[in-house]
Amino acid sequence: MAELSVRNLTCTYGNHIALNNITARFPTGKITALIGSNGSGKSTLLETLAGTLAPRSGSINNLVSEIAFVPQRSHVSHNLPITIRQTVSMGRWSAKKNWQRLTAADRNIVDSCLDRLEISGLADRPLGKVSSGQRQRALIAQGLAQQAPLLLLDEPLAAVDSHAASLIEDVINQQRNQGTTIILATHDLDQAHQADQIIALEKGIIKPQRKATESIKKR
Ligand SMILES: Nc1ncnc2c1ncn2[C@@H]1O[C@H](COP(=O)(O)OP(=O)(O)OP(=O)(O)O)[C@@H](O)[C@H]1O
């Protein structure tokens, strides 16, 4: 898989410039951590790579067609009629044409993802009636179930306890070891340190790497 990169990428919301002419490379089969304060542009970059936001200018190069994106979500209606298992199964449906039925192999993948995130016991519970940390694990399991070569995670450790955080970190490392390219936004500096590359954003631009590393060490 050729290396994913962005060149002179600018993204705006109306007149507001959220990403200002950034150029970056995302090594294949490695973890890139995006860090930066609130509003620095991390989610905007992930959404642009995921294709849910169109850039104003610049290019995205070598983007694969299958992308698993786990966005930042905080609220789901209590009445949403979908179970945790169905939520994770949606990761398999994305690879199907014309809403074909899931095969036994698909169901095994779903079971394995539920198991890896330790939510098998919650599989039949409605997504809207579990805790936000449990929901976060379900959404990550959905992303894993896609088995896409590119996995985008927006604050995967938000809302989870320390056990779940280390579980999610292990899962992310396992995915990287299997060759998945991972780009994640995080405010957790321990998690950023475990990444292969750190990109520090500030007001929509990339801080030079040396300074980015220094700023992490100081905190
Ligand atoms: N839907 C939107 N409409 C208008 N402006 C937006 C929108 N989403 C984000 N922005 C603005 O774009 C900039 C980048 O926001 P973004 O969400 O990418 O930051 P972030 O680094 O992910 O922040 P956080 O750490 O809080 O999640 C901010 O100034 C933000 O206010």
From TrEMBL:
<keyword id="KW-0547">Nucleotide-binding</keyword>
<dbReference type="InterPro" id="IPR050153">
    <property type="entry name" value="Metal_Ion_Import_ABC"/>
</dbReference>
<dbReference type="InterPro" id="IPR027417">
    <property type="entry name" value="P-loop_NTPase"/>
</dbReference>
<dbReference type="GO" id="GO:0005524">
    <property type="term" value="F:ATP binding"/>
</dbReference>
<keyword id="KW-0813">Transport</keyword>
<feature type="domain" description="ABC transporter">
    <location>
        <begin position="4"/>
        <end position="219"/>
    </location>
</feature>
<dbReference type="GO" id="GO:0016887">
    <property type="term" value="F:ATP hydrolysis activity"/>
</dbReference>
<dbReference type="InterPro" id="IPR003439">
    <property type="entry name" value="ABC_transporter-like_ATP-bd"/>
</dbReference>
<dbReference type="InterPro" id="IPR047748">
    <property type="entry name" value="AztA-like"/>
</dbReference>
<comment type="similarity">
    <text>Belongs to the ABC transporter superfamily.</text>
</comment>
<dbReference type="Pfam" id="PF00005">
    <property type="entry name" value="ABC_tran"/>
</dbReference>
<dbReference type="InterPro" id="IPR017871">
    <property type="entry name" value="ABC_transporter-like_CS"/>
</dbReference>
<keyword id="KW-0067">ATP-binding</keyword>
<protein>
    <submittedName>
        <fullName>ABC transporter ATP-binding protein</fullName>
    </submittedName>
</protein>
<dbReference type="InterPro" id="IPR003593">
    <property type="entry name" value="AAA+_ATPase"/>
</dbReference>
